[in-house]
Amino acid sequence: MTEVMKDPYSGLQTIELSHHWGHGVPSYPGQDDVKMFRAVKHAQHGVMAHRINTVMHTGTHMNAPLHMIQKAADLASISVDRFFGNGVVLNVPKESYELITAADLESAGADVQQGDIVVINSGWHHKYSDGIEYFGESPGLSKDAAEWLVKKDCKLVCVDMPQVDHPLATSLGPHRGGPTMNRLAAAYEKATGLDPKKEHSEWNVAHKVLLAAGIPTIEQVGGDVDILSNKRATFAATPWKFEYGDACPVRFMAMIDPAGTCRIDSGK
Fold first, then answer.
1. What's the confidence (pLDDT) of residue 132?
2. Residue 151: other Cβ atoms inside 10 A
3. CA-CA to 193 of 20 to 30 Å: which in 26, 81, 138, 231?
4. Neighbours of 225 (CB within 10 A)
């Protein structure tokens, strides 16, 4: 856990909600690793500059509606007001292969207001690694959870899991382009006694519900998100202005005022 930073003028505390990004960052099974090298080095040139070859869906990253919805908004087209605003972190602890349902969100212990930025903390960010468990056994949102968030008119939905959906509802399992984790379906059936094709018959259903409603998502939230569990905060994300971009790495952070005396002025 890193130290919470406090602004000496305003009293606002800033909290990191991103994982580290760089060479060797965990990447989805079936996708290339981040490749980076120093094209120019201090010892040789007195300056440093990197060259990078990367899949955009690595580390803490934002997905634009275009990611799954044809002709929807790309990263450059998303209104910038969605990247900053008030919201809440919902504490919804889950174990391997479990679903986060609308009932879970409703009973999480924090009130979601209309138009909020919602961050879901399942606890899975503690497992962040290039591991079978992290990617293959993670929880995911159910369809009704996504529909519940749409009804709340969320500005942004963020999860601390590898992806919004349950892994068996993605191409990690036996869906289009998959399985990119060959052992996943059998391991799920052995662990749960459930049929993955029956339980997760729709491909990326929760993510498609959110993106079809124009709600961008952030996956793989990390950092010190536990500090904010079931608390309200002001959030800020910094995606690229990427034309035709479906996703990009993003720095994500929160601001809180424990004393309750400092507010961002409306300007009126």
1. 95
2. 12
3. 26
4. 23
Report how far residue 203's alpha carbon sits from residue 222's, in angstroms, rounded to the nearest whole number: 25
DSSP state string for 17-85: -----STT----TTSPPPEEEEEE-HHHHS--EEEEE--SSSSSEEE-GGGTSTT---GGGS-GGGGEE
Nearest alpha carbon to residue 255 among 268, 236, 241 = 236
Tell whether omega for the bond before 179 is within 30 degrees of 0, i.e. cis. Answer: yes
Mean pLDDT for the stretch of residues 228-238: 95
Q: Confirm if 211 and 65 have CB atoms less than 8 A apart.
A: yes
* Separation CA 220–CA 218 (nearest Å): 7
pTM over 0.70: yes
Domain residue limits, the chain: 5-21+56-256
Q: Tell me the pLDDT of the chain averaged across its residues.
A: 94
The dotted CATH code for 5-21+56-256 is 3.50.30.50
How many angstroms from the chain centroid is the CA of residue 232?
18
Q: Distance between CA atoms of 20 and 62, rounded to whole angstroms?
A: 15
